[in-house]
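hey
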């Protein structure tokens, strides 16, 4: 079983969300996968209540604040996300880290908030092009993972990990299967050391970075790649359905 997750980012208002689910026609093979959609928070309630949404599709939010409530204008808390219909939360997406300056410490606080309210964190790690050229891929992604693992310590709840090389997000560039395999192997080895073999194997590691119908099958067939985190291609119901079917073959 693969995890096929779509991150809509700042796209898809209420009408577009309804249209997406009305048009989405999932192949039977998609039933073998865990399917997730992360709409913008303003469309989450619409997606949760949409009669055309396939029951196989779970919903998440793209970000939360670590406090349950307070004077944090524009933020969404974990309890609010859960009440609105979310089961998962993207934490530490590269755009949160590199556009909005989110730190490993803030990522850890958000992970703890997820765990406190029964939400599943999807923890994102990844290096920039400069860091990759400097030969610091392992240093960067393991530093991000270690901060997340500290926040998860003592929590028995499930979490997912997503490797998203920053240089391959929204650029049309994609890491090769070998690039993905190497990074995912590094992450899996650290998970084994921290959690033990059984727990590490149970933790899905997704690849995210310009995933498309044309490369999904190759990526999903790569060692230690347990799923994909899809950006732009998840906005089109046909392309998302193709990727979901690729993961079920």
């Amino acid at each position: 079983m693969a995890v096929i997750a779509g991150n809509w980012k700042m796209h898809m208002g209420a009408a577009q969300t309804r249209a997406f689910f009305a048009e989405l026609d999932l192949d039977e093979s998609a039933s073998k996968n865990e399917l997730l959609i992360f709409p913008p928070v303003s469309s989450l309630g619409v997606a949760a209540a949409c009669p055309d949404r396939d029951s196989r599709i779970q919903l998440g939010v793209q970000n939360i604040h670590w406090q349950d409530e307070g004077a944090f204008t524009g933020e969404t808390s974990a309890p609010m996300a859960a009440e609105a219909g979310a089961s998962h939360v993207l934490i530490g997406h590269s755009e949160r880290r590199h556009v909005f300056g989110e730190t490993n410490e803030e990522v850890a606080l958000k992970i703890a908030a997820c765990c406190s309210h029964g939400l599943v964190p999807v923890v994102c790690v990844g290096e920039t092009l400069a860091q990759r050229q400097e030969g610091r891929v392992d240093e960067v992604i393991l530093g991000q993972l270690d901060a997340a693992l500290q926040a998860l310590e003592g929590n028995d709840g499930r979490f997912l990990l997503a490797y998203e090389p920053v240089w391959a997000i929204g650029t049309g560039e994609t890491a090769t299967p070998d690039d993905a395999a190497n990074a995912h192997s590094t992450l899996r080895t650290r998970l084994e050391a921290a959690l033990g073999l059984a727990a590490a194997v149970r933790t899905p590691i997704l690849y995210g970075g310009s995933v498309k119908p044309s490369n999904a099958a190759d990526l999903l067939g790569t060692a230690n790649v347990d799923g994909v985190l899809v950006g732009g291609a998840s906005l089109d119901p046909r392309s998302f359905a193709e990727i979901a079917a690729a993961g079920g073959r």
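The domain at 3-246 is CATH 3.20.20.70 (TIM Barrel). Residues 17 and 47 are 6 Å apart (CA to CA).
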